[in-house]
Amino acid sequence: MSYTLHPLKKQRLQRSELAVPGSNTEMFEKAANSDVDYIFLDLEDAVSPSDKEQARKNIIQALNDIDWKGKTMSVRINGLDTHYMYRDVVDVVEQAGQHLHTILVPKVGVPGDLYCVETMLSQIEVAKGFKHQIGLEALIETALGMANVEAIAAAPGRLEAMHFGVGDYAAFTRARTVVIGGLNPDYPGDQWHYAISRMNGACRAYGLRAIDGPFGDFSDPDAYVASAKRAAALGIEGKWAIHPSQIKLANDMFSPPEEEVTRARRIIEALREAEKQGKGAANLDGRLIDAASERMAQNVLAVADAIAAKG
Predict the structure, then answer these.
(1) What's the Cα-to-Cα distance from 19 to each of 23, 67, 185, 294, rounded to whole Å?
(2) Cβ partners under 8 Å of residue 248, min gap 6
(3) Which of 88, 150, 199, 247 is most exposed, with the fewest beta carbons within 10 Å of its own?
(4) Could you read off the pLDDT of 100-116 as tens digits, one per residue?
């Protein structure tokens, strides 16, 4: 193994992430009372230009006034190429930053995009005397962002996670589809396999969480589950929910089954017993297990422990 290692920057339970438009105040309390792990209040694509300023005010009020019941709270700001972005950061963080865990930055193309937001955050946090540091999450949804995904992941700073935004990625790469997520009948396999796998590899190399983005057809739970299973198989640890009906699906798909948790504990126990005998490997149920098995088992147990801690 290389001497250069990047441990996980920040552990957060992020199996399900509910997208809540800042212009739809009726959804705020429902989101707070749901079983979702993570919420991002949206100022970008889900909000029309004429509603941007009011949505910003809505989000500030909601962060300050609503009991979010221990959920991780994030805000998706507008892109750096818009004139909305700086007020999103300044107004939301200055007025409600004490209730904010992360900021989701859309259409990140180069590491400097994050540096721009981080510089603003650092100044606001000092000025306001915040006791905590707000993290950053990058939405990889452009061809430029994917071309630079490793450099973005490696950049120093507050970055905690990357999300794959399949809709905009399809548009920017001129993919022949008008479907947000899911399988393309004209493609022999998963059209997004490479992109998600590349982003996940960059995340794991540099200690970031890897999250899959939206699945547009919320009337097709089976297809959502299939999409989540494919992502989970690649190492992704959570997925967006654009509709409340998708929350339980995501929680189920990204929670290790009880038998998987039990086997992970047995792997650890068997390897500890092997160590006492001076062995580096062991036999469990007719299969060889070794240090790699332990690392996989520890990944399972970390998620199980986080779920248990949520209660």
Answers:
(1) 12, 17, 27, 35
(2) 35
(3) 150
(4) 999 999 999 999 999 99
Backbone angles phi, psi at 171, to 5 degrees: -70, -45
Supply the CATH number for residue 124's domain. Answer: 3.20.20.60
How confident is the model over 147-159, as pLDDT tens digits? 999 999 999 999 9
Question: Distances in Å between the alpha carbon of 144 and those of 111, 153, 174, 199, 279?
Answer: 11, 14, 13, 13, 48
Q: Report whether pLDDT(279) > 90.
A: no
* 67 or 283, higher pLDDT: 67
Same domain, residue pair 139 and 222:
yes
Q: Of 188, 195, 221, nearest to 210 (Cα)?
A: 195
Alpha-carbon distance 93 to 88, whole Å? 8
Q: Report residue 126 as tokens.
A: 């000092």
Beta-carbon count within 10 A of 212 CB: 28
In 53-101, where do the E strands start and end?
72-76
Structural domain harbouring 179: 16-253
| Three-state SS at 108 | coil
pLDDT at 1 over 80: no
Q: Do 202 and 299 lie in a common domain?
A: no
Find the largest Cα–Cα distance for the chain: 70
Residues 6+ apart with CB under 8 A from 27: 20, 21
Cα distances (Å, whole numbers) of residue 157 to 25, 206, 237, 249: 33, 12, 22, 33
The response to whether 168 counts as a known ligand-binding position is: yes
The single residue listed with the structure tokens 């992020």 is 14
β-strand pairing of 159-164 with 135-140: parallel
My answer on whether 230 and 304 are in the same domain is no
